[in-house]
Amino acid sequence: MAVGLGGAIIVAAVFAAARATPSASPLSSATVAATTGTIQTASPIAVAPAPLVVYYARQGLPPFRATALGGVPSRNSLEDRIGARLSALWGAQPRFVPPDMSNPFAKSGRVGSQGQLGTGVRIDGDVATVTFDLPGGWGVTSASESQGLYQQLVYTITEDPEIRRALIREKGKAEAVIGTLVIAEPATREDVAGYTFSGTKTPTIVGDGTQVPEELTDIGVAIDSDILTRGFVGNEVGLGRVGVDLRATGSVPGGRLDPRFTATLERCDPPSCDGGKWTLAVTLPDLTWPAGRPAYNETFDRSPIRSVRAAEFQGGTVAIAVRLDDARPWRVAIEPTGTDTARLYIDIGGVSADVNENIAVYLPGPDQGAGDRASGCTCRVRGAARVSEGKIRWRVRDGTGREVARGNAMASRGTGPVWGVFTTTITIPPAVEGQPTLEVFSLSSRDGSEQDLIRIPLTLH
């Protein structure tokens, strides 16, 4: 309980400081679509309609947040807003669906009918129950489309900060049957995001490094292959990342900076959530905020990161507050970058099949082209891990399951709650049969058995 209370106080202080000293935004309006949550105002004057936020399905990833055509006055009821978003999603024309994404919900109700959608919305606390009247059925049959449709419905219905769970019902039926799925209970975003575990499984990570005075030299944010503020944070598909560069201002044993920190994931309730539902608060007790530098105060309104705030609060400790729209798996990693310098990564999500409790592979992505089949090729592998002695194992199998290559990589840290990052190059020999698969794993320190296995299909040209 003490950790949760302390985190709440820290986050409140960070946001107060950030609002008091806003920094200039480096984002252009063309980079990030402007989307808002509930607008609160004491004025009786009519306000403009809020954008309709909807979600499109993605293979192997949580749904993608986008803005649909249309609008509904923000003062309207939650029921009205949910109904308007669902109608906009159902009627979205294919040309508005972003590349590499789909809208299986658009098929619903259209088979053997004139194309009808009926919805009834009821709110009970933080649960929104939506009853669908679909004369033409859901329009999906495969497991992937069924899952994608269910995901985009749950995320779209729960967009309002007050709503955390969605129950899908069908008119005249005891349970909703969406293709291969039978829906009987309310679901949160974490329930349907596609990961084998959520970020709530590890609510706190403590890095007990060396107590050395430090200063912040840079901070950057990248979300889902878009570098939004600084290039050094990378651009990995499906990943939200905050990178923080640190420099020691005192003596460092061995010249290797190992910053202390505490990272805590806490539920966030409106109105102070920037439209999100969770806050990942990272405090660095030895860090000093640069004199004269304004608080970092950026709103992205993207998935999974809604905003990032960083500032020094009362008592002199620096904290970083990351507002999230769901509690997908998260990690904090440390990488030494030179004598007396280090980089701290706050990573959220990644491709769901490529993330487990101890290894997360960011590159290559699923079915990513690796190179030429005839002559062989090399492929970069990048990710994060917390495994025995920091040693990552990899191998490549051909389409028949035969091993054709293997090797090792070293993460910047070993076993423990704090993650390390790793980058390596693998070589695929010429004339590999079929579609090769990259396997990344670790070995148990107890018995040498393989564990934390991740399989990534590759494509050769």
- Unreliable stretches: 1-45
Which percent band covers the strand fraction?
A: 35-45%
The level of helicity is 10-25%
Rg, please? 23 Å
Biggest sheet character: 6 strands, antiparallel
- Cα distance, first to last residue? 55 Å
Q: Would you tell me the overall average pLDDT?
A: 86
Q: Helix count?
A: 4
- The strand order across the widest sheet is 8-12-13-17-16-15
In total, how many beta strands? 27
Secondary-structure-based class equals: mainly beta
What best-fitting shape do the alpha-carbon axes yield? globular
Set out the fold topology.
Elements: H1 2-20, E1 49-58, E2 61-73, H2 78-91, E3 118-124, E4 127-133, H3 143-157, E5 165-170, E6 176-178, E7 181-183, H4 189-192, E8 204-207, E9 214-223, E10 226-227, E11 239-248, E12 261-267, E13 278-284, E14 287-288, E15 296-299, E16 305-312, E17 318-324, E18 330-338, E19 341-349, E20 359-363, E21 368-371, E22 377-385, E23 391-397, E24 403-410, E25 420-428, E26 437-443, E27 450-460
